[in-house]
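re: the backbone from monday

yeah here it is again, tokenized this time
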């Protein structure tokens, strides 16, 4: 073989080897980059958030419900009851400490929750939490939802809640709270939902509802609230309104209106609510109406039959008179109209056989 060909072949081999080495190096670098990217996206839990969550777990005596909270896993992906912002921050934004069984004794709600500065949702219960709500939560500057439900929480509604001005939803239901509803809640101008049902709250409902322009849900059932319904409550356009099982009295007609979007009104078992039902206009969105066990008088207005989505009516145990509008019998039995002053018509006996209940 000519010498120049031998030199050419050697040169070609060297070029091929150099080319292969370059490709190998490029592939190796790409692998390193992909590994680094994988590592950065696999562990998204912020170290400060992980530290705070582990302190909460410690404060609750390491309950079984939090057994998934391990340093070897990502708190944003694998820790139960924890959620993170998957957008820009990747910080813990939701913590719902529900069904936590503290042994051997109930424990206070951990003040260490305040070390999660990006929380927008914080929930306690159902569970055997005891003691007051930790005042440290006023440091949660992004908190929108606070829910403490079905716990051993007692005492009064804390005044410091009015400092969490970002709140849109506040639920303290099914606890052992007593005392009055604080008027300081009027500072929560973004509030849309208030749930205080099934406590032992007493006194009048504060006249604060003009402070809530976007208010839609109100649950005050099963307390010992007394006095008249505040006028400002008539100015809100609520979807769900529950004031039943209290000791409220007087006029409640301001809660109704044909221009409202109310789906449910429950005023049952207040005993002393009294107004002329015949002069009331109803939301055309109304589905459930319960006014039973009061002193409501007048007749049942014919316009109620024009509410197409109405599926449940209870007007029993009042002072109503007159004929039951045709059409209501298809959604209510006789018991829904019983024990009134002088109602008649289907599903009750006809007006020719009118009787008292």
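seq for it, each position gets an aa:
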């Amino acid at each position: 073989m000519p010498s120049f060909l031998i030199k050419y072949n050697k040169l070609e081999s060297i070029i091929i080897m150099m080319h292969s080495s370059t490709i190998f190096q490029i592939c190796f670098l790409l692998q390193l980059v992909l590994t680094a990217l994988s590592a950065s996206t696999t562990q998204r839990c912020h170290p400060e958030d992980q530290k705070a969550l582990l302190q909460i777990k410690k404060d609750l005596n390491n309950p079984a419900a939090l057994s998934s909270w391990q340093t070897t896993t990502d708190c944003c992906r694998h820790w139960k009851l924890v959620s993170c912002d998957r957008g820009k921050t990747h910080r813990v934004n939701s913590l719902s400490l529900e069904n936590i069984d503290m042994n051997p004794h109930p424990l206070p709600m951990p003040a260490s929750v305040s070390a999660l500065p990006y929380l927008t949702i914080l929930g306690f219960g159902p569970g055997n939490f005891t003691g007051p709500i930790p005042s440290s939560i006023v440091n949660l500057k992004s908190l929108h939802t606070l829910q403490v439900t079905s716990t051993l929480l007692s005492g009064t509604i804390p005044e410091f809640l009015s400092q969490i001005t970002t709140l849109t939803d506040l639920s303290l239901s099914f606890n052992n709270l007593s005392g009055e509803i604080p008027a300081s809640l009027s500072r929560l101008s973004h509030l849309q939902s208030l749930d205080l049902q099934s406590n032992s709250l007493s006194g009048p409902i504060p006249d604060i509802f003009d402070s809530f322009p976007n208010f839609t849900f109100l649950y005050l059932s099963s307390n010992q609230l007394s006095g008249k319904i505040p006028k400002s409550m008539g100015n809100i356009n609520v979807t769900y309104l529950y004031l039943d099982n209290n000791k409220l009295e007087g006029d409640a007609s301001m809660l109704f209106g044909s221009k409202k979007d109310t789906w449910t009104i429950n005023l049952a078992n207040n005993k002393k609510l009294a107004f002329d039902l015949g002069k009331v206009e109803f939301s055309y969105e109304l589905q459930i109406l319960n006014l039973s066990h009061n002193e409501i008088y007048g007749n049942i207005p014919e316009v109620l039959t024009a509410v197409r989505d109405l599926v449940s009516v209870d007007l029993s145990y009042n002072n109503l008179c007159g004929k039951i509008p045709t059409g209501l019998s298809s959604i209510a039995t006789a018991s829904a109209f019983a024990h009134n002053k002088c109602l008649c018509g289907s599903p009750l006996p006809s007006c020719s056989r009118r009787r008292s209940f």
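The helical segments are 3-42, 47-59. The first helix runs from residue 3 to 42.
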